[in-house]
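Batch manifest, entry 17 of 40.
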Amino acid sequence: MTVVREDVQRITVLGAGSWGTAFAKVLGDAGRDVTMWARRPEVAEEITSANTNNSYLPGVALPGRITATADPRAALAGAQAVVLAVPSQSLRANLTEWRGMLPPEAILVSLAKGVELGTLKRMSEVITEIAEVRDGEVVVVSGPNLAREIAQSQPSAAVIACADHERAVAIQKASFNQYFRPYTNTDVIGCELGGACKNVIALSCGMAAGLGLGTNTMATLITRGLAEMARLGTKLGADPLTFAGLAGVGDLVATCSSPLSRNRTFGEHLGRGETVEQAQLAGGGQVAEGVMSCQSIRELAMSLGVDMPITDAMFRVCHEGVDPRKAGAELLGRSQKHEWS
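Output type: structure tokens
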């Protein structure tokens, strides 16, 4: 077992999107030296020379401790921790390219929230497989973490989860600052599933908003969505208490409620009658994570015999073209049951 250093000072963030950049700022404001990898050289140059990343977080000033490069080997040189900040469905391909460059002693940290299509693996499982590290060594960051609010130094909290508690503590210390309060947890399964499933439930809340529905509907979707997450997580061995915490209900409320949430906004376009393609164009050409996750999470739930009706409805809307009004009517028309059954 690798000896874990608690004084992690040199950290690499692979990915310069909004959340990767916001987390790099968190680390820089915690006094760490951060090197970012950006796919586009012009983004790397802007981060280094101007201390901004206006492609993803316009108007946000980044700490001078952050530099960036488009060369992954240069970015990874000497890193004590490596933060993987690429979308969940591209993590495998990217990590396959990077694995020979990873410093052998570095702590691997995942920011991605999703379940991989095809394999139905959580992101930490993908990392363990591709990077060939021991089970339980990957650190996961989850919670109510809307990138723009964190980048604006608004008070926020997160969960740093790892089966190896020492690794979680090392990243907790490396990311703690005046506005970002991280808590540790050893329930990686629960934290990852909470982060993946909330994107799907946020789609449903966005659709409800697009249909002109109100607070009662939103509260119902959030609460019943939480029940779906907990059923799936418990089946896979997660601690039910995790879903009552920051990585569960905390992340769910933030993502379902905020106009800053890409998943909620994407769902709102669908609720207004737009197609997935039209919603994608409105979102700058990006598909929300929940659109892909509803497929993989649905398949995972079906393989385990877990009932997830909201997830199933989102899959049918996004991938089978079912009208959101029809999907909502079918949810309301389901057979009556006890709340906890």
